[in-house]
UniProtKB/TrEMBL annotation:
<comment type="subunit">
    <text>Homodimer.</text>
</comment>
<feature type="binding site">
    <location>
        <begin position="168"/>
        <end position="170"/>
    </location>
    <ligand>
        <name>NADP(+)</name>
    </ligand>
</feature>
<keyword id="KW-0521">NADP</keyword>
<dbReference type="InterPro" id="IPR020867">
    <property type="entry name" value="THF_DH/CycHdrlase_CS"/>
</dbReference>
<keyword id="KW-0378">Hydrolase</keyword>
<comment type="pathway">
    <text>One-carbon metabolism; tetrahydrofolate interconversion.</text>
</comment>
<dbReference type="GO" id="GO:0000105">
    <property type="term" value="P:L-histidine biosynthetic process"/>
</dbReference>
<keyword id="KW-0560">Oxidoreductase</keyword>
<dbReference type="InterPro" id="IPR020631">
    <property type="entry name" value="THF_DH/CycHdrlase_NAD-bd_dom"/>
</dbReference>
<dbReference type="InterPro" id="IPR046346">
    <property type="entry name" value="Aminoacid_DH-like_N_sf"/>
</dbReference>
<dbReference type="GO" id="GO:0035999">
    <property type="term" value="P:tetrahydrofolate interconversion"/>
</dbReference>
<dbReference type="GO" id="GO:0004488">
    <property type="term" value="F:methylenetetrahydrofolate dehydrogenase (NADP+) activity"/>
</dbReference>
<feature type="domain" description="Tetrahydrofolate dehydrogenase/cyclohydrolase catalytic">
    <location>
        <begin position="8"/>
        <end position="123"/>
    </location>
</feature>
<feature type="binding site">
    <location>
        <position position="234"/>
    </location>
    <ligand>
        <name>NADP(+)</name>
    </ligand>
</feature>
<feature type="domain" description="Tetrahydrofolate dehydrogenase/cyclohydrolase NAD(P)-binding">
    <location>
        <begin position="142"/>
        <end position="286"/>
    </location>
</feature>
<dbReference type="GO" id="GO:0009086">
    <property type="term" value="P:methionine biosynthetic process"/>
</dbReference>
<dbReference type="InterPro" id="IPR020630">
    <property type="entry name" value="THF_DH/CycHdrlase_cat_dom"/>
</dbReference>
Amino acid sequence: MSQTAQLLDGKTLAQKMQAELRSRIQSLQAEIGRKPGLAVLMVGDNPASAVYVRNKEKACEQIGMASFGQHFGANTTQAELEAAIDRLNEDPNVDGILIQLPLPDHLDAVPLLHRIHPDKDADGLHPLNLGKLVRGEPGLRSCTPAGVMRLLEEYQIGLSGKQAVVIGRSILVGKPIALMLLAEDATVTMAHSRTQNLSGITSEADILIVAAGRPELVTAEMVKPGAVVVDVGINRVTSADGKSRLVGDVHFDSVQQVAQFITPVPGGIGPMTVTMLLHNTVWSYAHREGKTHT
Ligand SMILES: Nc1nc2c(c(=O)[nH]1)N[C@@H](CN(C=O)c1ccc(C(=O)N[C@@H](CCC(=O)O)C(=O)O)cc1)CN2
């Protein structure tokens, strides 16, 4: 008899959190006298990035946050972006700055991420904030991993002593989520493209976080019965019938038969990423204005 996993519903939690942020902004704004502001730097015309940036700007508007869209042409230089970051660092109405990734190939994201003032680092990718994560100090956390942790917390999924496996070692997701799980006393294994016997490792996982960037990589045979499976992948694929659809890095239909909990794609981690960005910007706003924010 096959079971069906319970969905970890990121979309619903994101809506609830955005409503809470909206009222938090209303009360802070009454004290501070201005709205929080987020600046999103987008370079070029990557269609997926354009959708994500639009969604971020729309979400800002819905919760009463100012959004300062900075859209640059595909041939923008590194120096022009540096100058834009310097201006935003100095702008008192801007509390959060993020550079939408990936950037076009001629640009180097790393020095640009380092240039963002750490107090305005809404994406949590500045080395100071990553260092605080390593040390377990409060600070701005990367949005996708923070969204995963918040979703697990919402469903009261205990992590202490659990075997957690993370597939993927990016600075955006894999490395920070491993540190966050470790901070909650999980026993963490990191797997990646060179890992041997991947299914042997994943099938030991109580908590499996998949951020591999490979459509439907994880199938039912690779998952321990009763595991919690979090799919961070977002891939647009074209089926044999020519239709385009969105899939994660997990083969949802088979894995939901063995897992206890699973995130859907869409509607799982994606909406949580946007919400944690808003959360981080409100956190920076409150922190910069001398108000505490959790
Ligand atoms: N500077 C950053 N760049 C990128 C990040 C990031 O966190 N910071 N993450 C991704 C893209 N991303 C946010 O930027 C993002 C991706 C997907 C979603 C989302 O809500 N997805 C929906 C489906 C949307 C669709 O139909 O295509 C879902 O999963 O339900 C939000 C944000 C890379 N770049």
